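Field reference: sequence -> structure
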Amino acid sequence: MNRNTRAVLVQACHNSGAYSTGCAGDKNDFVVEGLFWHAIIHKDFIAHMQYEQPASFPKPDSLSARHSARVGEHLREKIEQSGGQISFAEYMHEALYAPGLGYYSAGSAKFGVDGDFVTAPEVSAVFGKVLARQIAEVLRTIKHGSILEFGAGSGKLAVDVLTALEKMNTLPATYEIVEVSADLQERQGRRLQQSLPHLADRVHWLSELPQDFEGVIVANEVLDSLPVERFVRRESGVFQSCVTFDAARFVWTELPATGLLAATVAEIEADIGSTFPNAYTSEVSLAAPLWVGDLATSLKQGAIFLFDYGVSRREFYAPDRADGWLRCHFRHYAHSDPLIYPGIQDLTSWVDFSAIAGAAVANGLDLLGYQTQSQFFMGGGLELEMQGFNELPVASQIKLSGQIKTLTLPGEMGENFKCIVLSRGDIDTPSAFQFADRTNSL
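Structure field:
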């Protein structure tokens, strides 16, 4: 897999408009609005995971159903061309990224009320503001430093970061977005033009990673969208989970694991100090370390901020995680069946951050810090963003309070989402990590 292909694969292109709520109504309306966020499925919210499809599980509308049927036909052709089965990684890749068909390529809404989930930048501009404070610390040490964002979605994070950096008088030389979808480029460009017309000429779209990049690279919820291999430990060895088609539906099948997958599972077992028990099932991302390597090759000087839901390797492959970390999202229902609704539901897996750290070090990057999203906010300047809170109208206080809870509470995004920061060159550890750092857990 070459660099350009990986750049295409990893874009979690959330292509809906930002979710925003109105300001009309009485105080009770805003209380309901604050509670609304707790009914929305976030990708990390295990408490709402549906392991069995409930009677209330939503059905796709006729347009979505027809699109899913086209994606299903595309997958069946892939299966036939491959001799009757394909790896789950290939299934996941095609379901998400097949040109004009995949979940992230076909242009439907992905997040907010009309989508399937919400992401941190869409919850509140506070995410971008706090991140901008940390970015500014890096940019002040790099002459003419730029920002590179992967998977910019609606352009919400770009607008929030640029707005905050302008107020701090620390604008980047350019704001570059790795984006291969012409539709998404148009949406992002339109949003930036509407929100920051005087800065729009600083924004450039790329189809591949630049060479000798200096500045800050940002990727929010990109790693979880990398296709993963699924494996099963049997008494006779390790098997690769594959997908075939039988009786008008996609079903699981298995092949003995070989090559890189077999070697990687053996390495994981050696690392955790035990062999997985019989029938233990999990995932491994073979693409993520390669992508980190690509970032390392691209970065001449600066820092990389990666946000995603995930855990350390020992947590990822813990005995009680014997069915893995695959997560599917459809109309704010999270469940564990990736073989239904191909092309119209999101497929993700939690991140093994130990693998990310290992790949970074192996490719000559420095590991500056690793912490929860909540810790990142607390150490990164959240209290500064909350100054003047008491002077806000009550309705605005309730709205902002609900947003902060969603971003920081353990039962929401605060604990399960992590931030890992990598660097090359003489870059100081961002101040957020002076508050707390979990690097030793990796």
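Note: Residues 4 and 208 are 5 Å apart (CA to CA).
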